[in-house]
Amino acid sequence: MRRTGLGAMIVVVLAVLAACTNAPVEPPAPQPPAPAPTPTATKVVVGVDDLGPGFNPHLIADQSPVTQALATLVLPSVFRPDANGGLRLDQTIATSAQVTSTNPFTVSYELNVQASWSSNSPIAAEDFVYLWQQMRASPGVIDAEGYRHVTDVRSRAGGKAVDVVFDQTYPQWQHLFSGLLPAHILKDAPGSWTGATQGGLPASGGPFRVVGVDGGRGEVTLARNDLYWATPATLDQVVLRKLAPAPLAEALRAGDVDVAMPSEDTHVTQALSALQNLTTAPAPRPTVTDLALRSDNGPLADVRVRQAIGALLDREALRREVAPNALPADAFGLAPSQPGYAATAPAGAPARPDPAAADRLLTEAGYTRSASGTWVLGSTPLRLVVAAGAERTADVAVAKAVATQLQAVGIGVDVVAPPAADLFTQRAVVATPPATTTTPPPAALTSGPIPATTAAPTPQTPPQTPTTAASSSASLGSGGGTVRADLMVLPRAVGGPLGPQLASDFGCPEATATLVPAPLPNGFCSAALQPDLEALATAATPDPGRVATVERVLWAQLPALPLFQPVSLLVSTPAGAAATGFAAGPLVSGPLTGAQRWVAPAG
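Above: the chain sequence. Below: its structure as tokens.
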């Protein structure tokens, strides 16, 4: 009976289970898929001390480490320097470039059919034409001499082949057509050559493209150019961030900046001194800071007055005050960091101050000392205008230091700081004192139309009639009126071939039936020196005798006073050094050479 009862119980339990099994079962609610993790952009942040006024690598006004970095990573060049500074054909841009005729001298370029701007337009013959035309006719450009020898740029193969014709044999042709700019955008843009690149570069022909220029935050952001046809950049972004010395040190300590290239000065070194494990190294910049002396107008048109100014200024004291770690410059051609550099300055003035020589020269020029100790011509005080580009803070510091020295010896001085683009392209500038200068930051770059800006006058436009320093000085206190600078702080580009560089900086551009070349910023032109400059410009190897002659005449005529070669301090955190191998690079392409192969720092 016990077994029978147990069996009955089992039957009941099974029946209940069967009833439960037949009941409808609600399926579990479907779970949404887990969101994919948002990828973090790989980037390297580079600290800089300034962004500069603009980003056209061919303009004197825009010379800066940031402009050099953008030209290296964003703009196409037919030839680029290798690790030793020698030029190599960049086959991502041109598959061949060679001399195809000697009468007339012609260089033919076969362009890479895949090479295109990030706007989807091909890199083509029109870009060569645009650069050639601007370099021949625009004021305030650097290394223009080679382009002045080009008589024609011809397009073949639908723009993918170019023949460049010269007026004579030009051995330095490989140095031309670097830093090509997008003609299809710039040629019709308001401001074009000068204004349209102040807020960035509107298209890329390299491994990175400019996606943002934020003047307020002090940042330029480069992103990988996804339309680049060659090996893509490893990083998603390279950010160039403007920081003063103390914030830079804190950003390096916190890991917010990976590498940096500020000016090598005492403020920077003091701020970094408390940090451990940083790698530092000097890197000369591809410019020499000159004090240009206007030789075609005003008191300095008299060479004796120019020589007197040179004898009064203490160049070494200027360097110690403004850039104590810069390299003293004592030549007009090669920079102190370049192989073969040698000082060419004479033993006395203007290489070194000589007040007695200055007194003699000014007296010979008709000046006398007044009862108050100031120099006067008749009853008119000697008063000079010293100018520097408003956005170029180091240049403004030089201008103020020059003014202090000249005022101490009885010469009246007004310091003005107009926009750099105006200073090096216009004969007269608004007399804006540095203390009241307000420099708007570059406009943030967008994908829309290039912002309208005021175009610089073309060379065919008659120049403004400048007021003299004496007549305009009364208005300088309020920043009114226009003046023509007697002295200007000028960043002279170096690193190219010596002969064309000397001819570009100090030669007399020759007018033709179709071209009125732009005057040099300092107005200098020496008919006696011109044959030597032309011979050096078209020589395969500079003749040392001619170079010595040119240097000697320039020290005697003094169209400029070389001051110093600025130096960057390359700084790397341990992680930044391991990821980038941050180093000086070739002089003309700079520390960001090869940044397309950088990787993101660990951690």
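Confidence is low (pLDDT under 50) at residues 1-25, 437-475.
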